[in-house]
Each structure stands twice: as structure tokens, then as C-alpha cells.
Amino acid sequence: MKRREDLGRPRNQAKIGVQYNPGAFGAFAESIARLMGTARFLIIQSIMVLIWILLNVSFVAFRWDRYPFILLNLMFSVQAAYAAPLILLAHNRQESRDREQAELDRTVATRTQNDAEFLAREIASVQLALANVATTDELREHIERLSASIETLHRQK
After folding, report:
1. How far apart are CA 20 and CA 99, in angstroms?
2. What's the domain range around 144?
3. Strands annotated E in 4-78
4. Same-domain check for residues 78 and 114
5. pLDDT tens readout for residues 10-49
6. Are 32 and 94 part of one and the same domain?
């Protein structure tokens, strides 16, 4: 028996709902959140509200939304109702990317630390190996002593 995605729904029942591309919708949500989080958006929105209020207060012929500005409040409510979930979706996507980046950073940091420890051990082993190797000054000194000893032997003969 195969396990199904949703056991609460009969097999042959059609899926109800809107099919969409989550990646594209997420990118759209991020672009909206990026737009709404700017000073430019706030300034443009403030100018539009000011024009709305001036037209509805000043010109009798253009009054489509009288003083309590119920239609304007309704538009703000609709904007907030759509903006909040879109901003949350964008925030969740960013949080997911940040989590993935943090995991990648941890992996790289661990690998770097392991490499640094390996290199430190290699340097220590090279230093130990070089500790018993004669330096050029020591060799020169030995050669000079040997040369002096050879000269002394030649003079004695």
C-alpha cells in the first residue's frame, strides 16, 4: 500500500485551490515589501492621501468620499490586509536564506578551522624535522675547523 500525501481526502477527488509558483510569488512578495519599505513609497502615498482629502473637501463636484473619508479608510484597510502577509512572506523567505547562509558559514568556518589545525601540525612537524638539520653557519664552521685541522696535519708532515 502506497502512502498518499493527504489521507484525509479521497483518492479520486480533485484538488481544490489555486495553483501557483511559490518561488515567483515569493519574489513578488519581496518586491512589494522592498517597495513599501521605502521613504519614496511613504511620500507618494502621503501626497496621494493629501490630494484625496483636498479634492473631497474643496471641490463639491468631486466629492466621492465625504468627510469621515470612509472609502479612504477602506483602501488603507485593504492595503494593510494585503501588505502584512506579503511582508511576512518576504521576511520568512529572507529568514530562510539567512539560515541557509549561516549554515554554509558554519560549514566553511569548520573546514577553515580544520585546515588551519592541519597546517599548524604540518608546520610543527617541519620545525621538528628541521631542528636536527645543520645550518649553513654550522657547516661553514665545521668546514673551517676541518680545513684548519688538515692544514695542521700538512704542516706536521
Report:
1. 25
2. 106-157
3. none
4. no
5. 666 666 777 888 888 889 889 988 888 889 999 999 999 9
6. yes
